[in-house]
Structure formats: C-alpha cells, structure tokens
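Lay summary. Proteins are chains of building blocks that fold into shapes, and those shapes determine what they do. In this project we predict the shape from the chain. Here is one chain we studied, written as its sequence of building blocks.
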Amino acid sequence: MRIVAGRYKRTPLVTLEGEATRPTRDMVREALFSSVDVEGMDVLDLFSGSGAIGIEALSRGAADAVFNDVNPAAAKIIRTNLEKVHEKRTVYELGYDLCLKRLEGRAFDFIFLDPPYAFQDFEGLFALLERYGNVKEGSLIIAEVRKDHVMPEEYGSFKSYKEKKYGITRLVYYRYHQ
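And here is the predicted shape, written in a compact code that computers can read:
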C-alpha cells in the first residue's frame, strides 16, 4: 500500500499482518479523494487501521488529522506510518465511543468511518457524533461498508447524498445538517 497523491505521493505504508484490519485499497482511496477536496479540513479517521486515509488527507492538504484504532498493534502501525511522512499527529487507542467522548466539543469537517464489516451500530455511532459535538453544519461523513450492507438514507441529521461501489466495497457519503 502507498500514498496515492499529494506531497507524500508514492510513500509506502506499513499494514498490520493478518485479518485484524482491512486496509482501504489504493483504488478506493484515489476515488474517494478525487470526489472530496480535503484542503484545509480537520479530519477524523475513526477506525484507522494503518492510518492510510488520514495520511492521504494530510498529503492532500488537510489542516489536521486525528487517528483512532482500538487495536494497540494498529495504533503502533499508524505511528510508524506517520513517522515515514514526518507528521506528528494525535493517535488514540480507544473504542470509537470513548474516542468520540474524548474529542467532545471538537468538530471535524470530514470523518471517515471504516469499522469491521461485521459492525452494525451505525445508528448509535452517528448519534454519538452529534451528541459529543464532533460534527458541525456541513460536516462530511463517509462510511466504508460491504457492498451488500444496507445503509439508510438518513440517520437523524445526517443525510446520504451519494454512494459508490468498488468491488466488494461501498462508500456511502453523508452530510450533517442541523
């Protein structure tokens, strides 16, 4: 795996061995970032794995990126990949609910959600984003799910406006509107 574009283009990234994480493929990241301009945005990569999404965002001009993965081995990989691109950023090793609570009051422009494919509680996750003030008017939330996972058109104040399929993966785009 490598950074697709931006100032860190072609930088190889380390990934966790085994089935513990499922890195977002280069093709999917390239498609995602060709549809989203992250220049100047604050980014939250909530289920980071290798940190590829957040690092790709930084490579493309994001103002800041915060990383979280409950797996300590994944968090170590994220730190290693950040060192490769000489970035010092916050990396949490918390469950997503505890991470959002820790970040209470900090609103992000772009939040990437790539939980394990077996994850089912998107409704609860979206509710936590709003409850803890991690979103603001117009925040973009993109969920990566299996192509056959049904995602509703809205979760409360979060409205879906686009979906894209890439092999077994589907990206679902939401905007937050109060």
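What the prediction tells us: The domain at 26-176 is CATH 3.40.50.150 (Rossmann fold).
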